[in-house]
Amino acid sequence: QSVLTQPPSVSAAPGQKVTISCSGSNSNIGNDYVSWYQHLPGTAPQLLIYDDNKRPSGIPDRFSGSKSGTSATLGISGLQTGDEADYYCGTWDSSLSSAVFGGGTRLTVL
Amino acid sequence: QVQLQESGPGLVKPSETLSLSCSVSGDSVNSDTYYWNWIRHPAGRGLEWIGRIYSTGRIDYNPSLKGRVSIAVDTSKNQFSLKLTSVTAADTAMYFCAAGGYCDDTSCSLDEDTFSFWGQGTKVTVSS
Questions:
Q1: CA–CA separation, B101 vs B115, rounded Å?
Q2: Roughly how many angstroms between the first and final C-alpha of chain A, as a whole number?
Q3: Given A14, A49, B61, B69, which is the most exposed site by the fewest CB atoms within 10 A?
Q4: Are A97 and B63 inside 8 Å of each other by CB?
């Protein structure tokens, strides 16, 4: 059971927009920044979003992040088949004194 | 661009010690640009942070693993390592090393909620 809660899967058609939610508590999302990662099995996970809504250099603006209270959301617009991957949210939990992650969301582009 | 590569045995017997290394290129494990982490992913479950080491020598471990885990740096090889003792089947997972913090055009920050670069991971199975 992961500390942060994500839906196991989401799907949408190419060109559409999808959102992935990440729910936590006051000791983690409510108290620290959220980051998001894309992982294609067999490759290195990639940082997509940090500090809730900032994109590292090279990440297209199709990827966006937002946060409200103890929940965060990753948005992906203009979906491409290459976006099919697992997506994870992460943050620091001050009660657990540990970085924590969500269980991951598998994105399918139909 | 920092690159990381994990290495180590893919099979460990129960009760023995799991030992992995992470080779770093594009930065020095001695620099204060990033801190160095181990993270694992058991099949069918979420990511689990194992611990981190800073260039200052500060080390933090996930309390759930404390007592079994140790992380160290080998500056001569620009590597850092993980040792996990008394392993069981529950320790079977994909193990990743990662650089913590981030750098933008103007500065770097050792934020503890961000992992900028990851290795591809190495699969470790605990079985007799």
A1: 6
A2: 28
A3: A14
A4: yes
Partner residue facing B111 (CB), from A33, A44, A46: A33
CA distances from A28 to A33, B50, B82, B93, B113 (A): 8, 17, 26, 24, 10
Smallest CA-to-CA distance from A43 within B93, B109, B121 is with B121
Q: Closest Cα to residue B20, out of B128, B127, B119?
A: B119
Residue that is written with structure tokens 């559409």 in the block: A16
B4, B40, B114: which to substitute to probe chain A, counting the most A Cβ within 10 Å?
A: B114
3-class SS at B69? strand
Q: Express the helix, strand and coil content of chain A in percent, nearest 5 each.
A: 5, 50, 50
User: Any idea which residue has 């540990």 for tokens?
Assistant: A98
